[in-house]
Amino acid sequence: MGSTASARNGTWRNWGGNVSARPAREVTPASVAELAAAVRGAGEDGLTVKAVGTGHSFTSIAATSGVLIRPQLLTGIRNIDRDAMTVTVEAGTPLKRLNLALAREGLSLTNMGDIMEQTVSGATSTGTHGTGRESASIAAQIRGVELVTADGSVLTCSAEENPDVFAAARIGLGALGIVTAITFAVEPVFLLTAREEPMPLDRVLADFDALWAENEHFEFYWFPHTGSTTTKRNNRSAGPARPVPRARGWFEDEFLSNGVFQGVQWIGRSLPAAVPAIARVSSRALSARTYTDLPYKVFTSPRRVRFVEMEYAVPRAAVTGVLRELRALVERSGLRVSFPVEVRTAPADDITLSTASGRDSAYVAVHMFRGTPYQAYFTAAERIFTAHEGRPHWGKVHTRDASYFAEVYPRFGEFTALRDRLDPDRRFQNDYLRRVLGS
Fold first, then answer.
1. How far apart are CA 273 and CA 265, in angstroms?
2. In this predicted structure, which of 57-71, 266-280, 418-432 has the lowest mean pLDDT?
3. Continuous H helices in 12-130
4. What is this structure's pTM?
5. Are strands 228-237 and 289-293 parallel, antiparallel or unpaired?
6. Angle 40-41-47 (CA atoms, 0-180°, nearest 5)?
7. Shortest CA distance to 74 belongs to which of 40, 41, 140, 28?
8. What CA dihedral angle connects 90, 96, 102 and 103, to 10 degrees?
9. 106 pairs with which residues across the strands?
């Protein structure tokens, strides 16, 4: 697992350090048959089963006191179909390795999130996404899923085969079975030009619709306690490639965004009163830059500063109002927020429990440095998000339960009915799923 999620004395911990579990036993299957046997064995012993990836979820979605499945031997590309333009990959493959392997084959995913440490199954099962005007989450690029269900059988699904399972299993929360392989749509590799520049928050909010409409991928970061943002626009380019020069890349991505940022977070945690002043300096530290590179080098960035995060999807039309309410909250509350607020978008998709299911969405993410009290900030922010029928990211901190989800997801009952059929004995249950799906 390296530096991602750790296990000590039989205790599993997530990346953010806010979730731990003590499984009865751990299994690292080397094949789908071994994984299926592990699921059957758990059933015989009356134990629940959970697969864990790299622990990048801030919720307890992967925690179990039963059998913990580690998928690190189920990695690599199974098949590339150049006629269908798909790639089938084992569930434990890290996105980082998939991106590198695809680039070597002259291929790429259409869109991706900004972290590439996660496994493909962990990232898709929780609805990980980037930002895009037409291109949606990683799960929306799935064309087929193979999973081991509660009775130990292997089920494959796609738009043609078991379409009802396919509609749900692309973002299955680990509730329908253990994903063993995923088939993604891919396209010939392309270049993206990234344009990053500071912009006043008022201007971003006033021009948000235009910024969204004019760019394939638009996102921005607002620094609380300031009127400043950093915007990022990614658009396809005919080339040539002009990567960030190495020294500057190190300075901005490693030193400023990770090294100095880490130091700033330490200071803010010890001296909360200094946070607004630090925020003003931080928001001015990053200058404008433009570069052109392969998609995964533009979409993703290293994240070494550990944090805890809450993120909600709200209807895209509501996002500027949500940001104004969030700014008013920070101004009047006395909260000291040292981490920027991240805003991204996604088009509506047809996945049952996708945060963008059936509606064009904007994502607002609030973060706190690991070890800093975050409850007051997150609780107040969540009140704003839920007032707009927000849907929380399944892998990030939230307090919602099944009764709330039944209101904000029109097809919620479709998912729970499928779960009743595929996992009647709740082999894949844990406390988190009991809360968000009902028992």
1. 12
2. 266-280
3. 32-44, 95-104, 120-125
4. 0.92
5. unpaired
6. 100
7. 28
8. -170
9. none
